[in-house]
Amino acid sequence: MTDSVRIERDDGVGRLVFDRPEANNAMDTATAEALRDGATELASDDDVRCLVLTGVGGVFNTGADLTTLEGDGRDESALRSLAETLHAFVETLARAPKPVVCGVNGVVAGGGIGTALVGDIVIMSTSARLQFAYPGIGLSADGGSSYFLPRLIGLRETQRIALRDEPVGAAEADELGLVTEAVPDSEFEERLTEEAETLAAGPTRAYAETRELLRTSFEHGLGEQLEREADRIADLTETDDYAEGYAAFFGDERATFTGE
To answer: What is the DSSP letter of 56?
Structure first.
């Protein structure tokens, strides 16, 4: 793990933290590889029941570190490699068998957009902003932004954000449905921690099945999706969390889920 990415574990919550403030949390090859490897490690750790992605220094992530590039055709292989590594990271988070919370604590731009929007819950500080940024350097989208944006807010709004390249503040992001909620800077870390701890204490396997059903729902017709729902809900009756939740429903105590 490189110094530009930190892994933290605390009571079922695994954090990946962008920690390259001197470069505005931009991604060079080492950072992208650390993100990919860190996400793989946390996603496969059974003791981690919720993943959190956030940044330091008032910046979330500003995409590729342009200082490592040349600005011409010599960058083809470098950008392809960087994009493929970043995409492996984003896909690992999208397919993780546990909830993902993204804490957008500051500027998010370029390739950082997909990493912010992959979360099931996205909490944005009121001073943060999103900038598509690609038109300014003559490049197209990567990092999953062309996938997540239309699905979250529709094609027309995505076209406006992508082609006009106008910054989107926290209030607008909240109104559009880009993020789950916008919170004051002074409350951001407390709210992010609260959300992650709540999800980490939930029925992890049920969350995993729901995440997968939602993520792939656009790929199936209604009949097939209904069949997949029936299979998943029936399979979950074998879990300890179902037994716990069922008993709690008819009892006086709240369910205590173990993720099993």
So the answer is: S
